[in-house]
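Memo to structure team: turn this sequence into structure tokens by end of day. - J.P.
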Amino acid sequence: MSDELDPDLREGPYPFQRLVGFTLTAWSDGFARIELPLAEAHMNRQGLPHGGLHATLLDTAMGYAGCYTGDAADRRLALTLSLTVNYLGQARGGPLRAEGRVTGGGRRTYFAEGTVRDGDGTPVASATGVFRLRSA
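Reply from structure team:
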């Protein structure tokens, strides 16, 4: 697992990524980390980060984890087939960090798990997912 993102593998943000504001900060074989500084727009009616935000970060981190090739010219994409999110506690502050890891699978389908932590490192959500690789 790398704690860095190879600058050659950086991709420009896509529209939904720009809307939410997250960034891919680490990416290696079977691993990805997504980070998001919290803003008012991310909060629910109670003033807490919206649960859908946690799901988005987990889905994204686990998706990237299975798409690493190490070669910018060999771009791999995935579709989420199943996503199960468990909410563990309230985030006490940001940034939120989601890490995803591939746990198994085959040539076209893989399994992953992930965790979102708040700025103090406290786990606030976890997930498992099933993903299908597709061509770029």
